[in-house]
Structures are given as structure tokens and as C-alpha cells.
Amino acid sequence: MNVTRVLVVEDExxxxxxxxxxxxxxxxxxxxxxxxxxRTLAExxxxxxxxxxxxxxxxxxxxDGDGIAMISRGEDGAVRYPVVIMTSFGNEAWAVxxxxxxxxxxxxxxxDMMAEMARISERAIREWNGIADRKRLEAQLRxxxxxEAVGHLAxxxxxxxxxxxxxxxxxxxxxxxxxxxxxxxxxxxxxxLSSAERAADLTxxxxxxxRKQRLSPKKTELNSxxxxxHKLMLRLIGEDINIKINYSARNIFVMxxxxxxxxxxxxxxxxxxxxxxxxxxxxxxxxxxxxxxxDAGLHELEKPGAYALISLSxxxxxxxxxxxxxxxxxxxxxxxxxxxTGLGLSIVYGIIKQHKGQITVYSESGIGTxxxxxxxxxxxxxxxxxxxxxxxxxxxxTETILLAEDNLEARKLLTLVLEESGYRVIAAVDGDxxxxxxxxxxxxxxxxxFDVVMPGKSGKEACNSIRRIRPAVKVLFMSGYTAxxxxxxxxxxxxxxFIAKPVSPRELRRKVREVLNSVNx
Length: 521
What we know:
Blueprint: E1 4-9, H1 13-27, E2 33-38, H2 41-51, E3 55-59, E4 61-62, E5 65-66, E6 83-87, H3 92-100, E7 105-108, H4 111-115, H5 117-179, H6 186-209, E8 218-221, H7 222-237, E9 241-246, E10 253-256, H8 258-275, E11 280-291, H9 293-298, E12 305-314, H10 321-326, H11 344-354, E13 358-364, E14 368-376, E15 400-404, H12 408-420, E16 424-428, H13 431-441, E17 447-451, H14 459-469, E18 474-479, H15 483-488, E19 497-500, H16 505-517
Parallel strand pairs: 1-2, 1-3, 3-6, 6-7, 9-11, 15-16, 15-17, 17-18, 18-19
Antiparallel strand pairs: 4-5, 8-10, 11-12, 12-14, 13-14
Helix pairs in contact: 5-6, 5-12, 6-11, 7-8, 8-11, 13-14
């Protein structure tokens, strides 16, 4: 049953009684109201903080001040709740001033008008809710546009950065292989590789924030996934924090990239630990919720239906409203310099949105914080496929590979790796050059190794031209661009073989051999 909570700030007893009787008559028609009274401005301001009413009705002139002060605005300038102002001796100028200051309505007192206060209040609440919904949607649009702009920037740098990392990681890897494990040079090479790998991880994190990281979703039972993460949490957050797990009684199946969701959960648990420096409780729960069209829209989800819900609650210091509004923005952090980049929660946000889900946060200073993650429920609840590692195979060969790569350093590295593995490499600088080289050496070529995005003809366009001549030629695409670019080029939809940059020499050899050994491309 919905209850409308109304705070009436009125010092005259008879006036309050008239308003009260009006609400009682309205309640007879099925409406439920909870009226609370304050006799002074100070009392009204105190009660509005304690009770958070749906509506405030206030006399303009009170014993200790003007009731217009009951109008409260948030950090964004929006009125926090609807306020109806009453006066016994007002005029048009007062009415204009009340509305300018944010009042929802202005009423000149009379027995008839006070008796109608319930109807006036219902209208004020409807209109205020409409304005609040519109402002919320406008804020969501601005936030979406801002996140999209930063996402485009992240995607734009990924290609060049991944080409650079391919060269750094590749040459360092080759050098490590050449000097061997016992060489005095090995301790100098290992830091290069680990630093490059961290840089590659950072690129992946930025792409996850921009929602352009390529996902590898598989059907996963959510309770089992959290159980695995729980074991990691125990080592991460310390003995002074008690972890309570409340799993759903039913198995919950979702299509997720398990590595990405684990990253989300570990990030949120780390934040919870930091919010409880003196210890506390972290509660994690799973459940299934049915969201109708209204609730799905409220949570900014694509469509109504069944969703898996993960909730994480801590008993920490909480966050204020201003921080809560900015918490998923990139580079925003409340941590001291050197303790946080501000990417953590924006990456969490990007990962969940890429899974077509949503993450929300509820918190109050001094009380604690709750994050809720909504993920689409999958209807299939069959056996979860078990991953099996491929058997080791010979990674060398003698075949001829046509390599098309526009970046000079990446092209030199890829050529070196493949030639040292026994392959003959014919290198082309772009798609047009690849077509020319194929016209010259076509009968000898066993594999096309093409970058997806190149000046002039793209890798896909060059491949299409070559396959009109030799439809059965085997192809392996590679790219440092983000998943949205790759999908736009038709690589994923057409089920072509694909490898993402930065790529290590070992992974390149393995994938090339895998494609060459395959029956079909």
C-alpha cells in the first residue's frame, strides 16, 4: 500500500484541523496519507530531514521565520521535494516570488481552499515527479554523452598503443628466448616484459571503461562464480572484515565474461575494505528479480524481464550524495594522491554496461554503501561447457605467409618471428600492396595474415579481392583496434580467424599454426 507522507508546517491549530479534515475526506476515496505537523520553521526543517516527506505544506509567515525557507535544493540546483506555500494575506507578487523560489503551488488561505489541500497536494506531487523524471533523463543523457566521448578517445588511441606494445613485448620475448633462462641478461629483460604486460592490462582496462573491450561470454552459474571470488576475497580484505554470503536458493545462469565479472567483484570488495579501516561486515547476495518496463527504464536497462541481481553491502563510512553522483566518472577518486587513479569504478561501470546490465549505488555518510549489479538472466540452464586446453602442437612450419601490416615496427617484428619459425614471409605495407603481392606470388601463398584497418583497402577488403581469385585461401586477421571497429568491419560476424594486438611471439606462432592446420577457414 502506497502511503503519501505530508509534513504540514502551520502554527494555527484551526488551520491545521481544516487541512487535516480535507486529507481525511480524500483518504475515504482509497488514498492513504500520513500527516505530520510542525508549528515552527525550525521544527519543520528538523522534521523534513528526519522523515523525508513526499510533500511539504507550509505557511509563509511562521513565528520564527518565513516558510518559504522550507524549499530545499540539492547540489545540482534541483528542488528536493514539492512544497505548497500558504498565506492568509498574500498577493500576486508574493505568488510569483514563491514560484520563482521553487514552490510547486501557492494557496491563499480560506476554509474552502484548505479543505481542498489534499487535491492540490496530489497535483503538486504529480507535476513535481514529472519534472524530476525529465531532469533525471536529461542528466542520464548528459552522462551517457560524456562517457561515450571519453570512450571514443580511448578507442582512438588503442590501435597505435597496441602496435607499440606488440613491438616492445615481441622483441623482449625474442630476446629472452635467445639469451636463455641462465643468462645474466635475463633479469634485465624480465622487467621490460612485465612492464609491457602491465601497459597492455591498462589498455584493456581503459577499453573496458569505454565498453569496447572484446568479451568472451560463456554460460556461467553465478553462485559458483562468486564462490570462486570469495576465496580470493579472504586473502585480499583481511581478518578484521567479516564476509557474509547469502546465495539464492536456485541456480542463476548468466552469459558473462567470467574474468571481467571477477574484476568487477574484486574492485568493489577492495573499495569496501578501504571504507572499513577499523573492520566491519561485507555482505554479498544473489537473487533473481523481475523488472517491468517502468523499473527497467528506471535502472537504464535495455528491456524488461528477468535479471540476476548481485548486491554488495558494507558497514563502512559511506559516501555523501555529491560523491555518489560522480562515483562512476573517469578519473574521479576520493583517495589521496598516489592511492587511486579514478579508473576503478568507471571500468566497473563499463564492464557491466557492456554485458547489457546496470550497476547502481546507494549510500549515506556514516551508514555504509550498497552496490547492486543487474545482469540479464539466460533462459538456458543446461550443462555449463568445460574449457579444455588444446594439446601442444609443433609451432614451426615451412609454409608461405602473405603479411599485410601498415605499421613498420609491427611488420618488422612479425616478419622476424615468423621467419625464425621457419616460414617464408612476403610482407606488404597495406591492402593494395597485398593484392599486388598476391598477384605475383599467389600460387605459393598458404596463409593471409592481415591487419584489419589499414590505409586504402582494409584487410577485409583486400581479403575479399584475393578470395575472388582463390576462395579457399586461409586467413588470419589481427588488430589493435577496439571490438566495435572489428565488428563494423565484419570480422566477427563472418567468423574469420582473429588475434588481438598486442600479441606475443608464442601466441602468434600458436595461432598461425592452428589456422594452417585447420580444415576450413
